[in-house]
């Protein structure tokens, strides 16, 4: 089986990077994409609207109970963690919660990555892009332990290289890719 879901963790410089990346994908993109970017409450909706206008894919701010579906990009709202839950009929729902309350960031990349790894295992691709701090490192470890893959953004295209560097230095990155090449490398991985 191939990749069935892409999860992206991104922070400082993320809006600009996503405005470059997401519009490169065609309307028939075969799987869903779920993004955690560290944004204040209310900002994810505006980012989703902007990306939706720029893209062939449908981009939305994630809502409680949304169904994960191909060709849709879901962005976690500020102030809520985004997790996934598989239903008895096989559909996967997006869940929003303020727990765990002890997380440094809300939404948290690690919380999303952990949840996605439990459901998708080796059918998951996690991508850690520009951002400050260690967010994504723990979750990347969970994805790798579940058999999934991790790509990290190359230092040359990051506004802040901290998040990808932490993943690379932990030996968790399968590929280090510049923002300019990321869309083509993702498509190559899906094919």
UniProtKB/TrEMBL annotation:
Swiss-Prot/TrEMBL keywords: Hydrolase
Keyword check for Plastid: no
Transmembrane segment boundaries: none
Gene Ontology CC: cytoplasm
Source domain of life: Bacteria
Residues annotated as domain CheB-type methylesterase: 1-191
Gene Ontology biological-process annotations: chemotaxis
Reaction it catalyzes: [protein]-L-glutamate 5-O-methyl ester + H2O = L-glutamyl-[protein] + methanol + H(+)
InterPro entries: CheB_C, Sig_transdc_resp-reg_Me-estase
Keyword Hydrolase: yes
Pfam families per record: CheB_methylest
Top-rank EC class of the record's enzyme: hydrolase
A molecular function GO annotation: protein-glutamate methylesterase activity
EC number: 3.1.1.61
PROSITE patterns per record: CHEB (PS50122)
Protein name as annotated: protein-glutamate methylesterase
Organism: Gomphosphaeria aponina SAG 52.96 = DSM 107014
